Amino acid sequence: SLVKLVVEDPVYKRDDKYFLSREEAFESSMRKSIHYIEALKSGKIKGRPDAYFYRTAINDDLPTVLHDSMFLPTIEGQCTEEQKEKWLKLASNYSIIGAYAQTELGHGTFIRGLETTATYDPSTEEFVLNSPTLTSMKWWPGTLGHTATHAVVVARLITKGKDEGIHLFIVQLRSLEDHRPLPGIKVGDIGPKFGYFGMDNGFLHMTNVRIPRDQMLMKYAQ
């Protein structure tokens, strides 16, 4: 059974969990994430339901869990078929790791209050993303602190000077070569928390970050 696979695998042991420092806990969780991804690719785990129960049996904070539970489903549900052809393939085989960047320092579940902007530049057919205030900084999304290369960013669409409300955008955060933040991106870990030490909850600040027009998720809005 899936539970037996996890219980008998020494990589997933938890007997030292409460004796680890924060850094050690994150490293341990990352090893488990990599081992889990390798199990997926090897065929030991087949299909999303099995993957869910396998992750549940691991019973630990996995830095990649937001990739599986938020980034992938958002691509599946909000992208056009053309966009899915590109992004779903990359995300499903973990060539990229995604976060879901909605929560801001000043705004949690109050979606209409989000301040991050994505201003359309028709001369280049690009969106220009900015964090215009301190409270607009993305704050708390899991996987963002160290792990994610990309994120679905929730931002206000500004076009022709008009605020068109909240839309979703795929933004690359870090280089796929050396994992360093890209120009205009300030991203990192928010620091110590009361628990959940294996998850790299992070912050994101953007200054004039340009993305192509087709990186707005366009199934329901173009």
Explain how this protein is built.
This is Acyl-coenzyme A oxidase N-terminal domain-containing protein. It is found in: Peroxisome. This protein is α+β, with helices and mostly antiparallel strands and 222 residues long. Helices cover 29% and strands 23% of the residues. It has two domains: 2-58, no CATH class; 68-215, Butyryl-CoA Dehydrogenase, subunit A, domain 2. Strand 2 (117-121) and strand 3 form a beta hairpin. The longest helix is centred in the N-terminal third of the chain and has 21 residues, at 22-42. The N and C termini lie far apart (45 Å). 34% of the residues are buried.
Question: Nutshell version of this structure?
Answer:
With 222 residues, the chain is of the alpha+beta class. Helix content is 29%, strand content 23%.
What is the helical fraction, as a range of percent?
Answer: 25-40%
CATH topology (level 3) name of the largest domain: Butyryl-CoA Dehydrogenase, subunit A, domain 2
Number of helices: 5
Q: Proportion of β residues?
A: 15-25%
Largest sheet: 6 strands, mixed
Q: Point out poorly predicted stretches.
A: none
* Structural Rg: 18 Å
* CATH H-level superfamily of the largest domain: Butyryl-CoA Dehydrogenase, subunit A, domain 2
Could you name the CATH class of the largest domain?
A: Mainly Beta
* Helix and strand run: HHHHHEEEEEEEEE
The total of beta strands comes to 9
In the CATH hierarchy, the architecture of the largest domain is Beta Barrel
Gap between N and C termini: 45 Å
Mean pLDDT: 94
Shape: globular
How many separate domains make up the residues?
Answer: 2
- Quickly give the structural class: alpha+beta
